[in-house]
Design goal:
20 strands; globular; eight-stranded mixed beta sheet; D-Amino Acid Oxidase, Chain A, domain 2; 2 domains; binds 8-demethyl-8-dimethylamino-flavin-adenine-dinucleotide; binds P-hydroxybenzoic acid; single chain
Length: about 400
């Protein structure tokens, strides 16, 4: 089998790249280990920057998002029993859209299917060879048969657990990493929204986040031990923890409902530098991870793909390699900005075990600052909506 661009992974990065390349007249094949049903039902991100929504709309896959996504003009910071609002639109002129990642994936898969695009689900044994040559290839197993996909480029969009990154020789790659000693306990709840906007709460018992998915389904998280088990948390225990962390002194309280999903995610920051070697390029979580506090992961994956699609177009349409050569440097500027913001917001909002009471008071002082100083609020808002990106 032969194509121009071989893409490993049908997450947001891989599917969006395949879709954008198709619009530019470039052929691609996407290889994915999981089934279509699985990728279309896994609950992950919820917050899309305007950069992301603009690109999806421009690429013709934003119709359902425009109709069903909820535009938010601000969010709330809860601390010391009070809630203060960060007015994103007044500060930056931009907003964010809450639209679930698996809904974005449904829209992208539908677009690939409508265009007769090649997406192989349920593949196994993926391996890459020849990235130092102009004729790289990907071997994989599909429906019990071993196959080889010959291509001009291999794009590793296979997330944090994928195989692509390890194909770059260790001597060429440097890993930068920070593992946080806490995780997020996430729940999905059948209930009306607690508030019109997201609430990020800092409390001595730990961080909590009240987000939403639709008028009838809510997404909430609270800081926990990453090694804890969902079985240790009865619904009553979850609600009492969320009330303790989020409810404010003026009586505003978290709206309860039937909990129908519980999961725990670990938190880490990670950057692979370089993001390319020969004819292999990494994009999205395959190249970098952020803790979810800043809601940047999916948005970063989309911004990598924007850069890569443009660079591949310059290669095929104008025989230029300069944009491909500059890919890592171009992408890393935005990635390091988002890494810093996500790390900063994580340290600002979470209970940091082992730090002194002095440092805990500094967290509160900083929250007072970002909610009262225009300059500090603006810096936070620009990072959150994504306009501080280079
Ligand atoms: P993905 O989505 O992990 O997709 C990678 C795909 O590759 C497949 N794969 C393979 N396929 C073939 N061969 C192999 N050897 C393969 N190995 C793996 C996998 O099955 C998978 O389908 O990576 P991608 O495309 O880079 O997208 C990244 C985003 O998914 C991720 O950054 C976000 O979900 C992060 N994130 C958030 N990002 C935001 O922008 N806004 C948010 O509000 C937000 N909230 C979150 C989040 C992530 C969370 N978790 C679960 C870590 C909230 C949470 C709780
Ligand atoms: C979500 O709705 O899943 C969500 C929202 C904001 C974040 C992270 C996750 O910072």
């Amino acid at each position: 089998m032969r194509t121009q661009v071989g893409i490993i992974g049908a997450g947001p990065a891989g599917l969006l790249l395949s879709h954008l390349l198709h619009r530019q007249g470039i052929e691609s094949v996407v290889l994915e280990t999981r089934g279509r049903d699985q990728i279309e039902s896994t609950i992950r991100a919820g917050v899309l920057e305007q950069n992301t929504t603009d690109l999806l709309i421009e690429a013709g896959v934003g119709e359902r998002m425009k109709a069903e996504g909820a535009v938010h003009h601000g969010f709330e910071l809860a601390f010391e029993g009070k809630r203060r609002r960060i007015d994103l639109t007044a500060l930056t002129g931009h907003s964010i859209t809450v639209y679930a990642q698996h809904e974005v994936l449904k829209d992208l898969v539908a677009a690939r299917v409508a265009a007769n695009g090649s997406v192989f689900f349920n593949v196994s044994n993926t391996s890459i060879s020849g990235i130092d040559t102009d004729t790289p290839s990907i071997r994989f197993t599909h429906d019990g048969a071993e196959q080889t996909l010959h291509c001009d480029f291999v794009i590793g969009c296979d997330g944090s657990q994928g195989i692509s990154r390890a194909s770059i020789p260790a001597a060429r790659r440097r890993d930068y990493e920070c593992v946080f000693p806490f995780g997020w306990f996430g729940i999905l709840v059948e209930a009306p929204p607690t508030s019109d906007e997201l609430i990020y709460a800092r409390h001595e018992r730990g961080f909590a986040l009240v987000s939403t998915r639709s008028p009838t389904v809510q997404r909430m998280y609270f800081q926990c031990d990453p090694k804890d088990s969902t079985e240790n948390w009865s619904d009553d225990r979850i609600w009492s923890e969320l009330h303790a962390r989020v409810d404010s002194a003026d009586g505003a309280t978290v709206t309860e409902g039937r909990i129908f999903q519980k999961n725990i995610v670990a938190m880490r920051s990670y950057v692979s530098s370089t993001m390319q070697h020969g004819r292999l390029f990494l994009a999205g979580d395959a190249a970098h991870i952020v803790p979810p506090t800043g809601a940047k992961g999916l948005n970063l994956a989309v911004s990598d793909i924007r850069i890569l699609a443009k660079a591949l177009r310059a290669f095929y349409a104008e025989n230029r390699t300069d944009l491909l050569d500059a890919y890592t440097d171009t992408a890393l500027k935005r990635i390091w900005r988002a890494e810093h913001f996500s790390y900063w917001m994580t340290r600002l909002m979470h209970r940091l075990d082992g730090v002194s009471e002095f440092e805990q008071r500094l967290q509160v002082a900083e929250l007072e600052h970002v909610t009262t100083s225009h300059a500090a609020a603006l810096a936070m808002a620009e990072n959150y909506v994504g306009t501080s990106a280079v």
